[in-house]
Amino acid sequence: MTNKTAEAMAYIQIILNKTKNNRNLTLTVFKKLFEELPLQVSIIKKALKNKHYALAQQTTHKLHGSASFCGFMDIQNAAHALENCLINKNYKAIDQNFLLLQQAVLILARHQSAIMDILNQGESIN
Q1: Per the domain annotation, does 126 fall within a domain?
Q2: Where are the membrane-spanning stretches (predicted)?
Q3: Domain with 64 in it
């Protein structure tokens, strides 16, 4: 097993645990995540650029909720930090925290093909 496959399996196992090993539901969750997370990051980026902080905070809150449900701590922690900056109007720290969130989402996205390939195979995951 390659390192990338092992990392993909770690993400899969987190969601499998949440779905009580329901492979179809796990696949559905990942499809939704891979659709929504990049879109949410894009909305946040544009909102921050245009100083629409309420929209950025609202979207970050949704992303934080998704990451929390899934148990993806890296994304969850980055979203939480950005959301706190927005709530507390700590504008100096927003850019750095947004970049950390964007990076965490990109790390997950790099595993999209491997995750989807593994879940679409009929073989046992465990």
Answers
A1: no
A2: none
A3: 3-120
CATH of the domain at 36: 1.20.120
Q: pLDDT tens across 23-60, in order?
A: 999 999 999 999 999 999 999 999 999 999 999 999 99
Give yes or no for a contact between 75 and 101, defined as CB atoms under 8 angstroms apart: yes
Q: Would 110 be classed as within a structural domain?
A: yes
The answer to the question of residue 125 being in a domain is no
State the CB neighbour count (10 A cutoff) for residue 109.
15
Tally of domains in the chain:
1
Q: Which residues contact 49 (CB under 8 A, 6 or more apart)?
A: none
pLDDT digits (tens, 9 = 90+) for 78-126: 999 999 999 999 999 999 999 999 999 999 999 999 999 999 986 666 5
Judge contact between 37 and 105, C-beta under 8 A: yes
Identify the residue with better confidence: 17 or 122. 17
Q: Which phi-psi region, left, alpha or beta, contains residue 99 (left: φ > 0; alpha: ψ -120 to 50)?
A: alpha
pTM: 0.90
